[in-house]
Design goal:
By secondary structure, the chain is of the alpha/beta class. It has one domain (41-62, 80-230): 3-Layer(aba) Sandwich (Rossmann fold). The protein is 32% helix and 28% strand. The strands form two sheets. Strands 6-7-8-3-9-10 form a six-stranded mixed beta sheet, sandwiched between helices. Strands 2-1-4-5 form a four-stranded antiparallel beta sheet, with helices on one face. The radius of gyration is 17 Å and the shape is globular. It starts with 10 loop residues before the first strand and ends with a strand. The structure holds adenosine-5'-diphosphate (ADP) and magnesium ion. Adenosine-5'-diphosphate binds next to β1, β2 and α1. Magnesium ion is lined by residues 53-54, 175.
Amino acid sequence: MNVNGASVPALSLQRVRKVYAMGDSEVVALDDVDLEVAPGEIVALVGPSGSGKTTLCSIAGAILSPTSGRVVVAGTDISGFNPKQLTAVRRDLVGFVFQSVNLVPFLTARENLLVVDEIGKRTGAPARARADQLLGELGLADRAKNLPAQLSGGQRQRVAIGRALMNDPKLVLFDEPTSALDSKLGMAVMELIQQEMKARGTAAIVVTHDERITRFCDRSVHMDDGRITKS
Ligand SMILES: Nc1ncnc2c1ncn2[C@@H]1O[C@H](COP(=O)(O)OP(=O)(O)O)[C@@H](O)[C@H]1O
Ligand SMILES: [Mg+2]
């Protein structure tokens, strides 16, 4: 299913529709969305609250299934995948960084990276080496043994970035990664995201309300009311 060659998009969404059932009514969160992200490309996803950005990331990241349409991640069509297959996609192909960071509070920075190891493709010593390498690259070598509560907001977000990169994903989904940070720190984290993605040739979607962040991205895609309005 995986096709070789750099020309295979990191993500291809084709006429993707997502309808949430809300009691008797329905919410159309994604309304026939088409989007292609090239390998190594960083796309900013901009739009008002409720426009469907998180839903799009969740579907691209195999957390949610679309109501209809095709979802192809790094050459693998995941549209008809069962939950077990979707778990494998989350483990092998994609990484997530959420606004709320979601670190495990009772694990150290290093252990938060190694959590991925339990389900991931590396185990034991190679996983520990990978975690230490990433912590070093992210400027956290001397914070490896700290608990999340002992880290600043920016440091926590860097741990979350490291965790998302543990398994060398083809695509990383950043859902408002800087919204909980002050603007200076937000820009620094964005610069780091840009550097890390470009150094690895990893594609990314970065959801943001902040137009200043789009300059760290290769292009911007705008959403409104479940549709892509301009690219
Ligand atoms: N689990 C859900 N059940 C019902 N409606 C939802 C659910 N998640 C999101 N929605 C609705 O879908 C629309 C898009 O939401 P979302 O993707 O979270 O937008 P954004 O991330 O741009 O704020 C909104 O109208 C929201 O209320
Ligand atoms: Mg959202």
